[in-house]
Amino acid sequence: GERAFETVSFLDKHVRWPGNEGFDASIGHIAEQLEYAGYVREDLASVSDRMTFRVESYPMNRSAWQPLHANVKIVGDSEDLLDFYDNRNMLATNSFATVTGGITGFVIDAGDGSEEAFGGLDVKGKIVLIEGQISRAFQRAVARRGAIGIFAYSLPAYLQPEINQQSIQFKSIPLNEKATSWGINLSNWALVRLRAALSKGPVEVRVVTNVRWTPDAIEQTVVADIKGSQVPDERFVFSAHVQEPGANDNASGVGAQVEMARVAANMVKSGQIDPKRTISFIWGDEIRSTNRYVTQDSVRREGILWGLSLDMVGEDTQKTGGTFLIEKMPDPSAIWTRGEEKHTDWGGRPLTKEDMTPHYFNDFVLHRALEQAETNGWIVKTNPFEGGSDHVPFLRSDIPGLLLWHFTDQYYHTDRDRIEMVSPAELKNVGVTALVSAFALASADGKMTRAFVKEVQNAAIARLQTEYLLSTDAIESGAEVLVEEDILATWKGWYDAALSSMTDIEVGGSSAETMAAIEMAKNRLAAAFSELSLSKN
User: Which residues contact 272 (CB under 8 A, 6 or more apart)?
Assistant: First the structure.
């Protein structure tokens, strides 16, 4: 945990967007740590080198953006309204620099920033203030109506802006090289001060912004492999994204994964483990790098059996208010979210039966986390599928994919997401869970596989019993029996297919004994289901 924390601390010093100095420095740090751990650069490796890494480079179709400084001051006030030193998210991504010394302008209030709010306003040459999403309002104010810049406030309630009054979430404005303008994201405190000033009459402000644009920038991705000793073309893949300026999001995922790679290398070198399948690690741009890895090589894609994303995995939950979560592959809890199941405040849409992806991976990783929790009381929970991170590219390619993360977090995407919100103990719990999952699936023999089959069988029966009790309560409250029977049948069908999917665990293919264990588990599931008749009761 402490070693992972050191990497998180390094990344936390940088604002990391693809191609900029902070992103590239982070990529360099990852590569350096891999070399220290014994990974050999792929272009220098021999056939016998089992642990290798490479840094992939991809030309960007735009310049890389680096924020350097920003300041906002109400003319006549001695105190800054905002300053980059304290609020590095204040400058919206894709903002341009002002002239040296800054620019002054009067503030005009455009309400929620909607088209209707701009109706009778003359904002040309003004700085527009809105409460709403900055991106569309920027287009309306600057690109179409000639405003010189925009102030925007938009913080969801779960960030507790009345308490965290200086928090600012990072946001972006559309890249507009003709307007070469800027957007300023406001804190609750700054909004209140501006509105108080506006209530007394016209308000003039001075805005200073400074950024660096790097043309012909390169987006980099690090990929490391521990080659499997028996079936190297089959692999377990980890992914952690580098971009975004936060410590938990996602320096924590990067730090945990770097330490996992180091521990795995040491265990391979010492002979403690011998992965039969390949274990791979990806660090890059969120979703883009993982999607590229999955789709750019059809042969490699066929060998990817599991994908696990580490995103926001180091939270000090006492400070952030978040909880460790495993975001499940789509299961019926994403159709009928009830009982202890619930979506996070980040949000999820109801899915359909056609969206389901039955698989044992949900329960398999959950049980590894629960095993770790038994050693120290770590709190482990799950949430129905919501999407939005590096597990999605796996799922889109029909590869089992899960997300390890934390939520709800009162500092999510804000400039309060700094190193003091990160816990080495949490990093260790997540890292151990993830790495043990990979070790097990990379080398499972028949005996181990059959133990996992029994584990999923028991989870399936427990789920049916839980859903049965929820359904009986629902019927007593007026729900239709047929609807509740459909819920139970859907869960039974999902788990039946999940058990069937376990034929890919045993290295070299399932033995006759393992196939028999899977069929027996399915029969026991069917027997348990037959005893749960809602119509009888």
Answer: none
